[in-house]
Structures are given as structure tokens and as C-alpha cells.
What does this fold into?
Amino acid sequence: MHAPVAAVLFALCAVAAVAAPPGVAGVIHRPVQASAQAPTGPIGYSASHMDRSVDPRQDFHAHANGSWLKRLTIPDAESDIGGFSMLGANLDAQLQQWAVKASRGQAAKGSPAQQVGGYYRAALDMPRRDAAGLQPIHADLDEAVRANGPADLGGLTLAHAALHRALKGKPQPKIDGLSTDQRCLVACAQLWVDKAREERIRVLAASDVHGNSVVRGDAPLMNLDAFHRAFGTRPGDAMWRKPADRVRIW
It folds into this structure.
């Protein structure tokens, strides 16, 4: 199977237990609606999301995302909203349109479209899926729990290194009053922004394998030397971590 096809299958049907032929009984089709509220600018760095009244050395998450959090209202039908949820909802709608078209059984047998369509229908076989529960993906969930923290820090470290490799030492002008490193790190923190109702936060704290948005936005940066250089943190700052105590990946 081609790698792109496998990636789409995983994204569409991560909880599917077993494959089933087209026309399987019990298939329930639930349309995915694109996010009603589009992101206020590109996903990633946006100066409009920042609250410059907050000292980045004390609360970087609030510095990078404070204005976005203040002006955004959680839709009535949602328990939370963030960059990932808005991007994800729009992507889900596009993927579902493709998968539904592929599942109509008109594609050639063995083709990528037929594989996606058949697997999509299998994932919507609710009786089979409910009977299997989470058992088919327990190993993947365990791996996610072990990998999440190091993955965030490793990804941030590689992204920052890639930026400087691309720049090849060329000096860059400040934009929005921020250096290239500062904008890069603000964009990383903005990636994790999320605004949730208290009930949703309690559920995630008890069940989610990931840290919350504040933890994922702040904790990796506290271990990154480049962050401390870029924002001039000092002992006593809330974001400060002694060099000897910083975790390093790669």
C-alpha cells in the first residue's frame, strides 16, 4: 500500500477493528461539519494573538496567546476550541467528502480509492467497532503516552535547528518588534492554544494522554536554551530553568 494511502486510512479510521465489505450492515454515516468559526489568521505565528502586556519570562503561554484567548468565544455546540480543533474540523470535512465518494464502490479493485472507501465503511460499522472497543489500539495508546513529552521537545528542537539551517547565518530584520527566534518560539506556543470549558478541562485531565495546552506551550520551551537566550530569562523568572536541569533531545 502506498504511504499516502496508509496515512489517509489511519487518519480516517484509527479506531476501526477489522475490514468489512461494502454494504455491511450497521453502517452509520455521520456528516462532519466544517468549523463555523475560521481561525483568525494563519495557523502558527500571528502577532494579533499576542498579549504584550504579559512578560514572556513569567508566563509565555499568556504572552503568545493572551489576546486570542480574551477575544474568542467558545461556540455553544463545542466544549473547547483551538487552532488544532478548527484546522481539524475543516480537514475532517474535506477528508470525509473524499472518503464518501470513494466508498460508493465505483473505483477499480485494489486501487487507492477502493482501499480508502472500503476501510472507511468498515470504520463506520458501529456494532463491530463498539464490540471491539479500544483493544485493537491499546499498543498505540501506550506508545503515545510514553512519547508525548519527548516528542514535543524533540520536534521543537528540530524545528528551531531547521530554521537556522535555512537562514544560513544571515541576519534577519525584526518583524512586529520580534526577532526571528522570538517569532519562531511564539508560533510554537500559539500552535497549542486552546480555550475549553471547565468541564472539558476536568475530563481531559482525567483521561487524556497529552498535557494541556499551557503545559505543551510552556514546558518544552523551558528546556530549550534558545528560548532563554531569545527572551533573556533569569533566575527567579517563572519560565527559568537552570541549564543543568534542562532536558535535551537530539
